[in-house]
Design brief:
Layout lengths: L15 H17 L23 H15 L5 H6 L3 H10 L17 H7 L7 H11 L4 E6 L5 E5 H17 L7 E5 L4 H12 L3 E4 L9 H7 L1 H7 L1 E6 L4 H4 L11 E3 L1 H4 L16 E6 L9 E5 H15 L6 E4 L6 H14 L2 E4 L2 H6 L2 H10 L3 E4 L1 H10 L15 E4 L6 H11 L9 E3 L1 E2 L6 E4 L8 E5 H7 L12 E5 L3 E2 L4 E5 L12 E6 L11 H7 E2 L2 E11 L2 E7 L4 E3 L2 E3 L1 H8 L10 E7 L6 E8 L5 H19 L5 E5 L14 H9 L10 H24 L1 H25 L3 H19 L3 E4 L10 E5 L6 H8 L4 E6 L6 H9 L3 E3 L4 H16 L3 E4 L17 H9 L3 E7 L1 H4 L12 E5 L10 H18 L2 H5 L4
Parallel strand pairs: 1-10, 3-4, 3-5, 5-6, 9-10, 11-12, 12-13, 27-28, 29-35, 30-33, 30-34, 31-32, 31-33
Antiparallel strand pairs: 1-2, 7-8, 14-15, 15-18, 16-17, 19-20, 20-22, 21-22, 22-23, 24-25, 26-27, 34-35
Helix pairs in contact: 1-2, 1-4, 6-7, 7-8, 17-18, 21-22, 25-26, 26-27, 29-30, 30-32
Length: 945
């Protein structure tokens, strides 16, 4: 069993009564939810049902234990009215049952000390998080900033708050108002940290943009940032002193920009800042998805988005105050800003921060700082791991110890499985555990993290058949000796409280191992793009954000396969082709408008290679070399990185649409086949072949999507034919058994006519007569129909009481002998449980869905205790029933049924060792284990108690 959850002890005002009470709650919750217990924080203000999962029957057990522990009888009304342990503690204190000799306390149970101890979990904004740490541990080191001399400059929480307040005062003095935007163009360092929070404390919205690589490029760089500043309507630009004069040039291009200032100037005068109240839904900062695009998109990250993502990532990674994050990631990038800095801020662990240039100049320094500071966490794009393999020699690693590094996260660009496999082998002798390597998936539109792998598992690679994947989009597992394969790295499972789905071009959800567009939803999903409603509407609908990435799911895990957008990720930087094409197209000697820029996958590194294809009629070798050098200079000046390949192609080589748009994907295919400018291959033949390939893939996908539409229409017509007739027959028939038999026949007819492959096994395990309890997993609206078709007509369903009041459903269920239970009124819920006990005593057999409800997300939900308490106390057999396939056929929220096999497994009966809570817990665990044995691997992998 997992370790019990921590309780809030060791704080002022926390007496022995509170410790004793929370100890009882802790033990009960640990029994109720053993696998989830390590991630729970049990405090006096934890809500019993929402936070701890204590349902009505678990509350009965909890009340019994509290009364036994304190030797009292609690008031009956408290059973229903108490929401938190603090409510119970107030009654205990008022009844003078504290420690011997301790007078009864009449103080408000919500003591300030205890409420403050809850933070930052109760914080609603990023400012709340900083203020909490500054109030409780102002001298604790927050950031250790590394300079050129390797001596860390320590920044405490108190330091950061004081300096940020001075910056905020300077911003307010200069006219920045609440809700206005202020851009930060600063390198990694102390100024960025206090500048970012200074804007927040002033009530503004920070807009991080990346600084120039060299001061000699500052004018061109600032000109390229004008698009972002205009879109953001930035009122202030905070930058380095050296850039101030040139930055004034932006004033004419950015009408909203009223001030260009350095952090030192903002701190110049002592003055108090007045921090306006900010709400969770307010924008915390704008994360721009491009630093060079002519059409910038600013992701609106709210405080609620940010804190939800930090909490979900922290739960998945099990981070705590003892972790140490070593980072060289730039602060304008979401992985460096949120994952490294704000994550360390929230959870109170130290951040060792070095410059990105320090890593690029000497990659070994990253590893040595992990060694030096005993780093436990670090993250980087794939190219960084590849750089460590190619640029670090063995002599630089002598004495290196990476045994403290428990999580090496790989994200922000495509993950190359080969890179991580070689990285694990190369650094295993230096203490790196293979399980530390963790490919992850995230993007700015999801705040940061979207999917993480299980802790300690390491790299999981899926090898699929190349032909089936490229032609039909099916990720069929390849045989070991199959040479024609593709390999993809798993990015894990969605973060807690978040969901993923793969859809086709019509937005219809696809089953596992089918490639499509990746969409995600959850509390971290942003509200869209700043001042770009059309673009927001294009990617965000009904709470689902289109990532514009291609992927498939297998066993509940995510495998990224490519990007459906033209974005190029090179050395961790986003490059948009049309900016480069426009800049290169201005060079003399090239055909203007005949430039194609695209990314080409590098099999050696797994990163994008930046390729520039430019048409030129120039024949002279020396002149062609000068053109290549000129293109190289333009690209470096624009993007900060040189192109990996420059192709000077003959006229009419760059493929275009009929309207003159560059067909980058087609040009990429031409380049990969080494057919650019090949003599004898006419452009029209190239176009024709590319069109044929594109048409083949399109028709294949259209056929697979289109053939599902008639089936879905047929299923719904069948349902609206069978369902009313079944309801009418049940209402007319005079006897309960006749109603059940008729419903069984109707359900079997519906399944047969639907053409769904349907099978049942384990019928011999069913008790022939007498009372029994069936516990089935719940994955879809179809589950009830499937059980009616699979089970003998002597079982009564246990349903939520809300259905009893519905005329259509209630009448139908009552005629079938269904039993109803209350979910919200605690006292009524207990009374309903007693009625179910009487039903079992009279020989009735009952069917439960112990999960209570279902969702589109895979995996078993936590079980309610009702079925297991009844079976244990009545001494009747409990039969686990595993339903497989219904979630795929009709997933929650997806009204487009798919034709997939459904299978029902009736497991061997289980019998509790006796009555009581402990025996019911054991029965529940045994039933859950039995169900997981018979479910799909994805359901097993994603299940938690």
């Amino acid at each position: 069993m997992s370790h019990p959850p921590p309780v809030t002890r060791g704080v002022p005002g926390f007496d022995e009564d509170a410790e004793k009470l929370l100890g009882v709650v802790q033990r009960t919750v640990a029994e109720l939810r053993p696998q989830a217990a390590p991630g729970l924080r049990v405090s006096l203000h934890s809500v019993l049902d929402r936070d701890l999962g204590v349902d009505s029957l678990a509350r009965v057990e909890l009340w019994s234990r509290i009364e036994h522990e304190f030797g009292v009888r609690l008031p009956q009304e408290l059973f229903a009215s108490a929401s938190t342990p603090a409510d119970v503690l107030q009654v205990l204190r008022s009844r003078s049952i504290g420690r011997p000799g301790q007078p009864a306390s009449t103080a408000d149970p919500v003591a300030p000390e205890i409420v403050e101890w809850q933070a930052p979990d109760t914080a609603s904004t990023l400012v709340d998080v900083l203020n909490w740490h500054a109030d409780h541990q102002p001298g604790h080191t927050h950031v250790r900033l590394l300079g050129d001399d390797d001596r860390p400059e320590d920044i405490s929480y108190g330091d950061l708050q004081r300096e940020a307040r001075r910056v905020a005062a300077g911003l307010q003095r200069g006219g920045l108002r609440a809700g206005q935007t202020a851009a930060l163009m600063l390198p990694t360092g102390r100024d960025f940290l206090r500048g970012f929070f200074g804007i927040l404390l002033a009530g503004g919205i920070p807009v991080p943009i990346y600084p120039p690589l060299r001061l000699s490029q500052i004018e061109d760089h600032l000109r390229r940032q004008a698009g972002i500043l205009c879109n953001a309507e930035a009122r202030v630009l905070v930058t380095v002193t050296e850039a101030k004069l040139l930055a004034q040039l932006l004033r004419s291009q950015v009408p909203s920009l009223a001030r260009v200032v350095s952090v030192a100037e903002l701190e110049g005068e002592e003055q108090e800042c007045m921090t306006p109240t900010r709400l969770p839904a307010d924008i915390a900062f704008l994360q721009y998805t491009s630093g060079s695009t002519g059409q910038p998109k600013g992701v609106m990250v709210s405080h609620a988005n940010l804190l939800a993502n930090l909490r979900a990532m922290g739960t998945s990674l099990q981070v705590g105050p003892r972790d140490v994050f070593v980072s060289w990631l730039p602060m304008y990038h979401d992985m460096g800003l949120i994952g490294a800095w704000l994550g360390s801020l929230y959870y109170g662990f130290s951040l060792v921060l070095m410059s990105p240039l320090a890593f690029l100049a000497r990659p070994a320094r990253w590893l040595w700082e992990i060694h030096r500071f005993r780093g436990t966490l670090s993250a980087a794009p794939n190219f960084a791991y590849e750089l460590c393999l190619s640029k670090i020699n063995d002599a630089e690693l002598e004495g290196l110890d990476l045994s403290s590094w428990r999580l090496a996260l790989n994200g922000a660009e495509p993950v190359n499985p080969g890179t991580l496999q070689r990285f694990a082998e190369r650094f295993a002798p230096y203490g790196l555990e293979p399980g530390a390597l963790a490919p992850v998936y995230g993007l700015a539109e999801g705040t940061l993290g979207v999917a993480f792998p299980p802790l300690g598992r390491g790299l999981r690679v899926d090898r699929v058949q190349r032909e089936a994947f490229q032609v039909r989009g099916q990720a069929l597992t390849a045989e070991v000796d199959d040479g024609a394969t593709l390999s993809f790295a798993s990015c894990g499972r969605p973060l807690p409280g978040h969901q993923l789905r793969i859809v086709d071009g019509n937005g219809i959800e696809l089953p596992e191992r089918r490639e499509g567009r990746l969409q995600f939803s959850g509390p971290s999903t942003c509200a869209g793009y700043y001042r770009a409603s059309e673009e927001t509407h294009r990617v965000l609908r009904d709470g689902w954000m289109d990532s514009l990435d291609l992927a498939y799911m297998a066993d509940g895990e995510l495998y990224l396969t490519g990007r459906s957008k033209d974005l190029i990720i090179r050395a961790g930087r986003n490059i948009y082709p049309y900016d480069v094409e426009a800049a290169v197209g201005g060079l003399a000697g090239l055909r203007k408008g005949c430039i194609a820029v695209f990314g080409s996958p590098d099999p050696a590194t797994g990163t994008d290679r930046l390729v520039v294809m430019a048409e030129s009629a120039e024949k002279d070798p020396a002149a062609r070399q000068r053109l290549r050098q000129a293109i190289n200079r333009v690209v470096v000046d624009l993007t900060g990185v040189p192109p990996d390949d420059i192709v000077l192609a003959p006229p009419r080589s760059v493929l275009k649409t009929s309207s003159g748009k560059i067909r980058r994907a087609a040009c990429r295919e031409l380049y990969l086949r080494d057919e650019v400018g090949r003599p004898g291959l006419a452009p029209w033949r190239q176009v024709l072949r590319l069109l044929a390939q594109t048409l083949h893939g399109y028709l294949g996908r259209a056929w697979r999507s289109g053939r599902n539409l008639p089936y879905a229409v047929y299923i719904w017509l069948l349902f609206w034919l069978v369902a009313p007739l079944t309801w009418l027959g049940v209402v007319i028939l005079p006897r309960e058994r006749w109603c059940r038999v008729f419903t069984q026949l109707s359900a079997r007819l519906f399944v047969r006519l639907a053409g769904v492959p349907f099978s049942v096994e384990g019928v011999e395990h069913m008790p022939k007569s007498g009372p029994s309890v069936l516990a089935a997993n719940h994955a879809s609206y179809l589950d009830g129909v499937i059980l009616c078709a699979a089970l003998p007509p002597r079982f009564a369903f246990v349903a939520k009481r809300e259905l009893a009041s519905q005329w259509f459903a209630g009448l139908f269920l009552r005629k079938l002998g269904a039993r109803f239970v209350e979910r919200f009124d605690l006292q009524r819920s207990v009374a309903d449980s007693e009625a179910l006990t009487e039903a079992l005593g009279s020989g009735q057999a009952l069917v439960f869905f112990p999960e209570g409800t279902f969702s589109r997300a895979q995996g078993l939900r936590p079980f309610h205790m009702g079925a297991f308490m009844l079976a244990a106390n009545a001494g009747v057999p409990l039969v686990p029933v595993a339903i497989r396939g219904t979630r795929t056929v009709l997933r929650d929220g997806q009204w487009f049924p798919l034709r997939e096999a459904i299978h029902v497994s009736l497991c061997a009966p289980l019998l509790a060792q006796g009555p009581g809570w402990s025996e019911a817990i054991s029965l529940r665990d045994a039933a859950r284990a039995e169900l997981l044995e018979h479910l799909d691997e994805s359901e097993r992998a994603l299940s938690s108690v």
